[in-house]
Structures are given as C-alpha cells and as structure tokens.
Amino acid sequence: MRDELAQLMAALRDSRDFESAAAATLRRMLAAAEAAVASSRYAGRARVLRGIVHLRPGEAYRRLAALDVGAKETTDAGVGTPFFTSATAWRAVVEHRCAVSIDVNIGTVQPHAPDAPVTGDPGLAGFHSNESKQRFLGRHATHVCVLPLRTPAGMEGMISLEAECLAAMGQEFVWRDAGDVLQLFTDVAAPYLTALPQRPVATPEVDEFLPVVGRSMAELLPILRVFALQDETILVSGATGAGKSRLARWCHERSNRRGKPFETLDLVTVPEDLQMAELFGWKKGAFTGATRDAPGVVARSDGGTLFIDEIDKLSLKAQAGLLHLLESRSYRPLGEGTGEKLADVRFIIGTNADLHAQVRAGRFREDLYYRVNVLPVRMPPLQDRNDEIPLWGRYMVNRRHRERLPEGSARLAPEAEHLLVTSSWPGNLRQLDNIVRRAYTLAMVEHAGAAGDLVLQEKHVARALDYEQAPGGRPLPEALRAAAQAFVGEARRRGGPLDLDLADGFRGLVLGLAIRQVGRDEAFRLLGRESLVKNRNHHKALKRELEKVDALYKALGEDGSPFSDLLEGEEAA
After folding, report:
1. What's the predicted TM-score (pTM) here?
2. More confident: 265 or 424
3. Which CATH number fits domain 215-380: 3.30.465.10, 3.90.700.10, 3.40.50.720, 3.40.50.300?
4. Care to name a GO molecular-function term for this sequence (predicted)?
5. Phi and psi dihedrals of 90, rounded to 5?
C-alpha cells in the first residue's frame, strides 16, 4: 500500500495538466479495485470496468476524464461518449458526505459511513430516473463506487468506479472493503485534480449556432459534446444575455435529436396563470378564452428538444406539473378528461438564479431541483470572455451588413474593437448586439453614397455606448437629464424633427428592463402598478408600452427594440 501511494504521489508531482493527473489517479484506483475483487468471493465472477473523474465545483461541471481498465490514457471527451454522469451518484455523495456504493440492478445506495442505512427500494427508487439506471446497465455496470473529491474549499466533484458482477446483485460488493484505500487515493489526488490546468484543446470548429468560441468556451465544449449526446436534462446557468439559448440550440444540433423540433419557452414572457397552459396545451373550453384546442410547447417539441429558460420564474403549481412530466414522461393538457399523453422530449433548462438558494427560500421545489440539476454547466459571463468580444463584434457587424446589403463588406476599426473590449458588459451578448447595431446605423448614415467598405470607427462605437450608458452612481435626476440631452442631440443631428411623443417610449424601456431583472408580475409591482396585475390588465398595458419602445427604435433607424421578444410574446398571447 505504501509503495502504491508513493508511486501515485510521484506521478501527480510530474503531472502538468488535469488529464495526466486523472490518468495517474484512476490507474492506481482501478488496480486497487481489481486487487479487492481478486481477493474476494467474487474472484473470477466480476470485472472492474472503468473510472471517471467528475470535476464540478460550484454545482457545475468543468472537466471529465475517463479511463477504461487496460487503457494508458484517459479518453478525450471530444471523441465518442464513454462518459456517463449520474445525478443519483452526485446527490448521494453530497447528501452523505462520504463514499457510497450503488447496486444498479435493485436501485439501492449504501453510504460507507458507519451504521448508515441503505436507501432506495428495489427497482428504481434510489435512482434519479429510469434512464439513469438503464444507461448504467447499458455500460454493463452493475455496481458503482462513488467517492467525494474534497478540498478545504468543499466538495469539488467525485470519482466513480464501475464494475460488472451479476453474482453480487443484492449483496455486499467489494467497494466498502476497499473504500478506505480508494478514498485515500482520492484525497491525495484532489489538490492536483482541482488545481492543474486543462490540457490545451484544439481550436473548435465554429458554426451558425455557435459562431464564436473563445478560450473559456473552448474548455467547456468537450463536456457539452458529451452532454449533448445524452438524453438527460442539461441545466445551463449564467447571466441573462450570456447566450444560454444559443448554447441550448448548439446542444440540440449535436444530439441524436437533430433535425427534430427545437422549441424555446422563456418563462419571463409567460404570466404565472398561463404557465401550465403554455407547457401542456389545452382543450377547447378548458378556461375562459379557450375557443379551440391548442398544443402546448411540450407537444410542439415532440421527438426533439425543449429549452425552458428562466426556470426560477416557474410557479409552484407549474413546478409540480413539470416534476410529474420529468418523472413519468407523460402529461395531460388542460381540460383533458382522462388519460395522459407521452412526451418524447429532451429538456434543457436555463436560469440566471441560484436554484439551490431558491430551494432554501422555499421558492423552488427540492425534488424538481434534483430532477433538472442532472448535467449542470455554467456559462461564463461576457466579462470573463474578453477574447470573444472583438470576434462577436465582427460577427454581428458582418451579419447585419449581409442582411441589409448582400454586396460589399463591413468591419470594425481596431480602435473600435479596443473600445468594445475595454467597456463593461453587464448585459452580455444582448447588450453587445444592441451597441453594434446602433454603431452600425451611425456608420451607415455617414457612409451613405460613399465608395468602399463600411468601417465602424471608434467614434461610432463611443456614441453608441453613450446611448446605453448606465447611470452608475449618478443620481436619477442627473441620469434623466442625460437621457433628455441625448434625445435632443439626436433630433439636432438628424436635421429634421424627432417627434416628442416618441419620448413616451422611455416608460416602456423602464418597464422592459425591470421585467428582464425581476420578471413580469414583480416588475409591475415594483413600479407601482400592482393593481393592473390584480385586475388582469397588465398584458394590455405592457403591450402598449412595448409598442412605444418599438416605435422609438424604428424612428432612430434601428431594426427593432431590445424588448422585441417580449412584444412578440404579448402579441402571441
């Protein structure tokens, strides 16, 4: 034992990246597991299959590395799908804070802590889902040992070891006997696995769904390729506007469901009392205004993928309905008398909230949290992806130019790109797109009739940023005065009148920004219009205000307002 530990420590000290440290760790852990099998009553009737390092600090996956018995190197996450991630395994080690053994066939979880009870009932109850159980069995894994990857900072991930032994079904396998050695190897390796950098990845291919990939995203894509090919739920967390919906579409296009429907449900745009109807659809007469049968978003995405964004905005009643859908893969449209419809849908969930904190506050069901937190990834904000900003800027300029003028080209001057990189982007890609769109319009005004390429200069970007400038620490009266000056300045630059009635769009801008931050109903309450919500008149009011915003942006030569998606949602409702 002392020799094996010394060899592992020497190999870890020589490791230069996460992958080599993972290979060194798993090689010795698998050897220890094989030795335990050879000295047990299952010798000759069991085989150790593989080990996987799951690095997931802060409730989000960062890296994966798998090593099959006999292999020399860990498997590249970008090649094939040898990995399998299990919500059952993660929830068990987090709950018990120790190693656990899973008997896959009968669905039980046994903590290695002294006198800890076996959890789960025969068949399934210990598992997050039947799909989770079947995927283990499809890999010939009948017994799994899961060990917590711990550092002084807390739980940083886990290491899972898989074995096949039908003879041990319902019986104690070797994991508990070998547990102390396996946990010692895990604890020794933990500082290296969590601190070493990832091996440099090849420059990923970009496409229409993810046209820009910087360093941070390049490190995340190998994991996402693995997740995309599974049918389990992906939870994408990240700031509003970071690009979660684009990433969800990218995963759909790399899944076995590509070519099938991809539907998006943004819960910010759906009132609480309509969430169940929008999810599951309704039959004629199910409620006032239901004059015809209507399929819900679940039915429309049948066979494909459903991306539900802002899941924290889901009401507790609708949470119960979604939980039933995820558990049983069936649902009942509103007004349907008897029977349920089967749902062949893969779910991707988006949120900018801390769902675990929402659970503690009683605003999000704990059982639903564990149903959606199966394959969690965190999308870095644009502020942490500075290398992507000029690339996104070029992409947005070229896309807008092709839409308006298929011939010719447009580009950002180097000084303009530098200004974009050094600016603050709390609104992420959505805000960046607004700035580029505005700067493009300003450049077009100056370029009208001129020959040569369209070049967005630093002055165009600076002026576009002035329009977007957040008040920061300025008093509200001062910020309002600055907005008024910008309105008058625009009228003077145009050389013609800018209708004062367009200033009414400011109310809609305030309301739209509030909805982005706190949700529709809460925004009305925040801005002193709670009575409209109580009287069910807030939909008309919102549509009216958003139309004013749209009119303002069109008058300024913009393609649409930053809240065009909210307006479309109101018009559809």
Report:
1. 0.78
2. 265
3. 3.40.50.300
4. ATP binding
5. -65, -45
